[in-house]
Structure formats: structure tokens, C-alpha cells
Amino acid sequence: MKNQFNVLPHTPWTAKKHWSIEYHSLVMLIISLTILGMGEGLLLLANLGSAPWTVLSQGVALQAGFNVGWASLIISAIVMLMWFPLKLRAGLGTVLNTLLVALSLGITVDFISVPHSMLLRFTYALLGILLFGVASAFYLTCHQGAGPRDGLMVGLCQRWHCKVGIVRTLIEITVCAIGFCLGGTVGIGTLLFAFSIGWIVQLTLNTIGYCLRLKK
Question: How many percent of the chain have pLDDT more than 90?
């Protein structure tokens, strides 16, 4: 556990166990994962390029000849197989990530109008990336398991003793490059996400840790 807390700070809303249902951690999971889904929805509405993992799903779908949804599911399964050597465990956060992010994403896309001006599209993209990164940090500090991709990031940070910003950026760039080579579509929003999301998560985690130290 010690290494995990070096990556993710121990917070007042950290749960005692991966599958325990505790008020503070459950509320934080619901709020942060809902916001994460909203961020992903805004990025989608901006139509300036999908997130790198979506680009990879597009590329795999094109090469294999099946639906992008199936490609995403297969990629998630493969990524979770990589959890075993990293000694990661699924938890309540893993399940809620799958359900709440999809629900929030769908609602955001259905109820928020599509931007037409380039300025508004960039605003959507930047706000979406910011919300995605900040919310990711908060739900991870519940210590109740992560989504497949976030779990890979945390596991590699623990194994390599590296900062989240460095590891996440390397993952996103690698995934983006592979997806592009396979035929996925890359836009300016994709590149903004790939190069910034890790550092937004890192800055948020640092800020949470700093605020907690001030309270002691």
C-alpha cells in the first residue's frame, strides 16, 4: 500500500477496502466520475479529434473490420490483463467508472448544444480536457480501483517510481501513434489531450496532497 499512496495521496474520502461502500468515498466516486464523463462529452462535441485511446479503437476497428465499440471493449480487456503483473485489483471504482462515465457522456452529448464557431469548439475541448483530468485525480484518490487505462497508469507509476505526468503522457502519445498508424483519425484535440492530460492529473494530485499537508 505504501507505494500506492506515494502515487495517490491518502485522503479523508479514501475507502478502507476496494469493494466497501462508504459514504464519503461513494459520493466522491459518483461526483468525480460524472464530471469525467461530462469532460469526455465536451471533447466529443468539440469535434477537434478524439482522445488517443479512441483513436486506437478506431484504428483497430478499421484493420480488423468490426465496430469501434467492440474494438474499445477488446482493448480494455487486454489492458486489464496487463494489470496482473502490476498487481492491480479492480474495485467499486472500476465498476462505477464503466457505468457512470458512459451515462454522463451520453447525457452531455444529448443535452449540450454542438458548438459551431472555432473559438467555442476550442473552449469545449480545453474545458473537457481540464474536467477529465481533475475528475480522474479525485476518483483515483478514493483507492477503490480504476478504469482499465487509469489502472495501467497507476500500476506503471508504482513499478517505475515515476510521476503520473510523465507516465500518462508517454502512454497517451504511444497509444495515439499506434492508432494513427492503424488508420485512426487524429486532430488538434487529440494532441492537446495526449500532451496535457497527464500533467493535469499530476497537478491535481499534487494540489490535493499539498492541501492535506496544510491541514495536519
Answer: 90
Q: How confident is the model at residue 68 (pLDDT cuts 50, 70, 90)?
A: confident
**Calpha distance 14→93 (Å, rounded):** 11
Sign (positive or negative) of CA dihedral 75, 81, 86, 87? positive
Cα gap 101→34, rounded to integer Å: 6
CB 50 within 8 A of CB 187: yes
Q: Within the chain, what is the greatest distance between any pair of CA atoms?
A: 56
- The Cα-based distances of 61 to 17, 68, 74 in angstroms read 37, 5, 10
Please work out, in degrees rounded to the nearest 5, the angle formed at the alpha carbon of residue 192 by the alpha carbons of 30 and 159.
65
Backbone phi and psi for residue 62, each to the nearest 5 degrees, phi listed first = -65, -45
| All cell numbers assigned to 2 | 505504501
The three grid cell numbers given for residue 59, joined into one nine-digit string? 484504428
47 falls in which pLDDT band (50, 70, 90)?
very high
Q: What is the pLDDT of residue 215?
A: 81
User: Taking all residues of the chain, what is their mean pLDDT, rounded to a whole number?
Assistant: 93
Q: State which amino acid sits at residue 197.
A: I
- Residue 6 CA to residue 113 CA, distance in Å, equals 41
**Other beta carbons less than 10 A from residue 162's beta carbon:** 14
| Torsion from C-alpha of 174, 109, 70, 190, nearest 10 degrees | -10
